[in-house]
Specification:
The longest helix is centred in the middle third of the chain and has 21 residues. The protein is α/β, with parallel strands linked by helices. The chain is globular, with a radius of gyration of 27 Å. The structure holds adenosine-5'-triphosphate and magnesium ion (MG). Magnesium ion (MG) binds next to helix 3.
């Protein structure tokens, strides 16, 4: 593509971000404003202008998928030559390998799971307790390494950060020390070490540094708000004396502080790179309808809500649904997916998002039941997850110890102490137990542990080949959804305890991160957004009553506000009418399946209103359009039955309405 063509479909701020000559450059902008687009365009445009050679570009992204996406986009933009795109870890690993190959030495083996070394250091814990302890300590070590904190400094740094730790900081520091010692003794590196080891190699080996800096002269980083200090150090080591760095990010989407990331590195970018750095801001949202932008931003604290405009055309307001139970939620969403699926809305344009991995189980089951292809992203298939394996192992052991006992009793044992368990483990125990009850319902009281395992494998099998299928509904956590987008998004499990997650309560920083996380989730939707929660959720053998997420109120307020706004021009019944409409929407009056028709009706009305130079509400109000969309009248008589349509409106608009309905109904 010619250079100027690469700028034609960009707005002025985006164009400035692409052509800005001064580096280091930070592009700071909200979700959906085209940051990733600006980043790829910048590479392509600078390439086309001869300012850079794509072979010398390194683009760092957050996941492998994002890296692949970036390469794809660059190829479509006609970037010749190979841009290297990958995660910090992947690039560091490749460089370290290269260094060893060049030196004729062998690369240390990578320790894929910390558990192997941590287990023996944890004293006499056993079974599930041990698994939990390992997870907790491993997270602490990862946090420390992300912030470049060595075991010696761990205690003082924890105090400085006012971090709550799962055990006393002194105890963790000792385990951390022991872990490092063991690792060194065995000649291993863990994943976090890759970053530090590569940084150190660049800092201490001038030959290696020179060759890498020659190879990668132009550095780009997406999602910079989630960069850690360790990664920043690596970035600096890559740069050396150079300054050719462009980063993009959104502080409102910082969701990895718990793992040691520091959004301050983005917001204080100028301080990091002295005054020569430039900051460009974008403020137009291109991804979502104005209704979705508004609902998503309502989650953020008011003071921090940057100004955003939406480039999209009017759509339907997000819908909030309260389901009777978690199973009803999963099945309801499976039905909605079935209904929404069509030639213009393939499976892959829809996603179901949830807060914790364990929540995927009921969705996997519900989608498999009705034959919807799906793919569980970012997590091993349910049965392969270590937490789930631990739970199943426990069941197996119980069955071996008491072969005569009924499966139902084993299940009761498993969940009886569920309340004393950590949140993460409880989620997994609950998920397995819920499937256990389903199995019992199918099998009757004769069920056995072996039978249950077979049932599990069979009923969750949809996930196994899910990864191979291109056209599949995505199931993923809010965290994993960052940077991605879909036409239709279901954000689920919006209940206290999950959103915000229970272990964040009482911790202001963690609570703020929970809000941003929900913002990330809601801002993934382009046209249709459904938010849901379940009034009860299975918790082991008990069913617990749930209350809706406190964050839902602001979203509903934003939806309500939108409805109010149209009520004032739309309907003399004003606020009361708006609330009624909201209630109707709340109850799911407008099923996902009816929304394309509703959108078409809104477009028809808008065009007509423009042509006649009258406000849209003069033609028909939203409530009537919704009624038309949900009842799909096929005759004048049927139209007349709708409360918003009398003989005059029928005569004026009846034929046109029937035509729009006809086009959308088989
Ligand atoms: P996030 O913060 O969620 O990662 P982002 O800022 O990186 O979002 P992009 O993914 O680059 O946003 O863009 C969002 C969507 O808007 C994409 O589908 C993109 O192609 C589209 N888009 C961006 N800029 C424009 C534009 N000027 N004209 C039309 N579409 C655009
Ligand atoms: Mg992006």
């Amino acid at each position: 593509m010619r250079a100027e063509e690469l700028l034609t479909d960009l707005d002025p701020s985006q164009r400035a971000a692409v052509t800005e000559p001064v580096v280091p450059l930070a592009i700071l902008a909200p979700a959906g404003s085209g940051k990733t687009r600006a980043l790829t365009r910048r590479i392509a445009w600078q390439g086309a202008m001869g300012h850079l050679d794509p072979n010398h570009v390194l683009a760092v992204t957050f996941t492998r998928k994002a890296a692949g996406e970036l390469r794809g986009r660059l190829a479509r933009l006609g970037v010749r030559g190979a841009v290297t795109a990958g995660t910090f870890h992947a690039v560091a690993l490749a460089q370290l390998r290269r260094r060893h190959t060049d030196a004729g030495t062998s690369m240390p083996a990578i320790l894929d799971r910390k558990a192997r070394l941590l287990g023996p250091l944890l004293g006499n814990a056993r079974g599930a307790e041990l698994a939990i302890a390992i997870n907790e300590i491993a997270s602490e070590i990862e946090w420390a390494k992300a912030r470049r904190i060595l075991p010696d400094a761990y205690v003082s740094q924890v105090q400085r950060a006012q971090r709550e730790t799962p055990r006393s900081p002194g105890e963790i520091a000792t385990i951390y020390q022991g872990y490092e010692r063991e690792k060194k003794r065995k000649g291993l590196l863990d994943f976090d070490d890759l970053i530090a080891a590569c940084t150190e190699a660049l800092e201490t080996d001038p030959g290696f540094a020179a060759s890498q800096r020659w190879r990668f002269r132009h550095l780009f980083v997406d999602e910079f708000q989630d960069v850690t200090r360790a990664q920043l150090a690596l970035l600096r080591a890559w740069l050396g004396d150079g300054t050719d760095l462009c980063v993009v990010g959104d502080p409102d989407q910082a969701i990895y502080a718990f793992a040691g990331a520091d959004a301050g590195l983005l917001t204080q970018f100028k301080d990091q790179f002295r005054e020569e750095a430039t900051v460009v801001r974008l403020d137009m949202n291109y991804r979502s309808t104005p209704e979705i932008v508004k609902a998503a931003r309502a989650v953020l604290p008011e003071a921090e809500r940057a100004h955003v405009r939406s480039a999209g055309t009017e759509g339907s307001p997000p819908v909030v649904i309260a389901y009777e139970s978690d199973t009803a939620e999963a099945r309801g969403i499976a039905d909605a997916l079935l209904a929404a699926h069509g030639p213009r809305r393939p499976w892959s344009s829809m996603a179901v998002l949830y807060r914790v991995n364990a929540q995927s189980a009921p969705f996997e089951e519900a989608l498999r039941r009705v034959g919807i292809p799906y793919r569980v992203r970012g997590a091993a298939a349910f049965l392969d997850r270590p937490e789930v394996k631990a739970v199943i192992d426990e069941l197996r052991k119980g069955a071996k110890a008491a072969p005569g006992r009924a499966f139902a009793e084993h299940l009761t044992d498993l969940v009886s102490d569920a309340n004393e368990l950590s949140e993460d483990r409880r989620e997994h125990v609950d998920a397995v137990a819920a499937l256990g009850r389903e199995y019992l319902a199918a099998e009757g009281s004769t069920g056995s542990v072996t039978g249950f395992l077979e049932y599990l494998r069979a009923s969750l099998r949809g996930g196994d080949d899910g990864g191979l299928q291109d056209d599949a509904v995505d199931l993923l956590t809010f965290h994993r959804a960052k940077g991605l987008e879909w036409d239709t998004v279901f954000v689920t499990g919006l209940e206290r305890g999950l959103v915000p997650i229970s272990h964040a309560s009482g911790k202001p920083d963690a609570m703020a991160e929970e809000r941003r996380l929900l913002y990330v989730a809601l801002s993934r939707a382009e046209r249709y957004l459904q938010l849901s929660w379940a009034k009860e959720r299975a918790r082991g053998t008990r069913v617990s009553q749930r209350t809706k997420s406190p964050y839902l109120a602001s979203v509903e307020g934003a939806i309500d506000g939108a409805e109010m706004a149209d009520a004032t021009v739309d309907n003399v019944r004003g606020a009361a009418g708006a609330r009624q409409r909201l209630a109707a929407v709340d109850a799911g009056e407008l099923a996902i399946a009816d929304r394309p028709l509703y959108d078409a009706l809104v477009t028809w009305r808008r065009d007509l209103a423009r042509a006649a130079a009258v406000p849209a509400y003069v033609i028909l109000d939203n409530k009537t359009l919704r009624k038309v969309a949900s009842t799909r009248p096929r005759s004048s008589a049927a139209l007349l039955e709708l409360s918003g349509i009398g003989p005059v409106k029928l005569e004026r608009y009846g034929a046109a309405l029937l035509e729009v309905v006809g086009q959308h109904t088989g």
